[in-house]
Structure of DUF5319 domain-containing protein:
Amino acid sequence: MHDEPIDPFNGDPADPTAGLDDPGDDATPDPLTDVERQDVLEDLADLEIYQALLAPIGVRGLVIECEDCREPHYFDWDLLRGNLRHLLNSGRPRVHEPAYDPDPDHYVTWDYARGYADGVHDTLTEGTEDDPGTATSAD
């Protein structure tokens, strides 16, 4: 099983994106800084939690507002995970295109997913913390 989608043009000399992956020998990308690397690792960990909580209720992935084209991009869980791993390994993001005719009702933002996860966490931990302000004494 592959962690990311298989490239249908892999090894094809007529690959229309061949020049995109090889910017040239003189354009070696800078590796991620330690802070950037940690951010990507945290995003991957968060993504696992979000998928575990949201996929069972019909959420297919996340929507991200693209800074370059100002369009929403819809990523299913596996594609987003593959993109983050690619960034972690190569130090640069993948070239991307908007999904074909996605149903926006099946995608949520990072902020929504984070809030949902926080709400589930708060609900599960409610009443398990000792709160001295709620204790009553019998006098």
Remarks:
- The chain has a mean pLDDT of 81.
- The helical segments are 18-21, 34-54, 77-90, 110-125.
- Residues 20 and 93 are 11 Å apart (CA to CA).
- The first strand starts at residue 61 and ends at 65.
